[in-house]
Amino acid sequence: MTAGIETLGRNQKEHRLWQVGQFIGRTPLFEINRVFLKPGVRLFAKLEWQQLGESVKARPAFNIIKNALLSGQLQGRNLLDATSGNTGIAYAAIGAALGIPVTLCLPENASEERKRILRFFGAQIIYTSKFDGTDGAQEKAQELFREQPDRYFYADQYSNDDNWKAHYETTAPEIWQQTRGTVTHLVAGLGTTGTLTGTGRGLRNRNPDLEIIGLQPDNPMHGLEGWKHLETATVPKIYDNGLADRIIEIDTIEAYEMIRLVAKKEGLLISPSSAANLVGAIKVASQLDHGVVVTTFADNASKYGEVLRN
């Protein structure tokens, strides 16, 4: 495809979006039964790296791009957003497939693997201070958009309702179908908060008694890339403060120890945030006598050189 999708007619756009959309979502549900095993309780994780862009962020990135294209907001503009890496990679991969230029504000301490992948997909990267995290990247993206509103479509994943709606429309029904309606607990880490907000709302509509548990790092100087310590960070506008029944804090070291354990016992090489989700899910599952606990593995370890080197 030589021309960008924004030059096509609506029917052609919809067809091309349908083609790319076949590689978004529909991820398998993996049962954890060696790292955790308790009679009467089952624990599952969605393997979210098994889609275009290789992370859970493919869902919101595609939904944001699709709706911006069909509404004309991307006509003649670059997609602009702040990212810690995974959403940026999803934007870049989908943008490459659709011929959409992508500009990303990224903290300079993002892993080298993420930076390299973004460059391969052709994204323009604007680095921001590692000390300011994703909050600083958001501020830079907002500044660029204010200065050149005709050049950029600011996707703003932290405030864009298409983020959580992607999970409401895809992740929640997938989990419901895959568990045959037996899911009793949803456990999800808090970054943009889209996974917890959208999946939680979607599952609770199907089961009002579903318990929703949010996870966050146990301190501001954590090592869980993409996660937010909500008490000290800018809280995403899409976050529904009244949705989670409780919040559990996760220790970074405990999450990193879980990576090695899951590799040896379950045969999966997972990322630090995925391992943190599992730590939280096990804490929840351990307290139950009966139930079906579901969490997500946002991505695998391929973008985290420090994990594979240790």
Could you outline the blueprint of secondary structure elements for this entry?
Elements: H1 10-21, E1 29-32, E2 41-47, H2 58-71, E3 78-82, H3 86-98, E4 102-107, H4 112-120, E5 124-128, H5 133-147, E6 152-154, H6 161-178, E7 185-189, H7 194-206, E8 211-217, E9 246-250, H8 252-266, H9 272-286, E10 291-297, H10 305-309
Parallel strand pairs: 2-10, 3-4, 3-6, 4-5, 7-8, 7-10, 8-9
Antiparallel strand pairs: 1-2
Helix pairs in contact: 1-2, 2-3, 2-6, 6-7, 8-9
- Total separate domains: 2
- Determine the number of helices (DSSP H or I, runs of at least 4 residues): 10
CATH architecture of the largest domain: 3-Layer(aba) Sandwich
The number of strands is 10
* CATH-assigned fold name of the largest domain: Rossmann fold
Question: How would you write the strand order of the largest sheet?
Answer: 1-2-10-7-8-9
In round numbers, the mean pLDDT is 95
Distance between the termini: 41 Å
Give the helix level as a range of percent. 40-55%
Any idea what the shape is?
Answer: globular
Poorly predicted ranges:
none
**Given this structure, which CATH class of the largest domain is correct?**
Alpha Beta
Largest sheet: 6 strands, mixed
Strand content: 15-25%
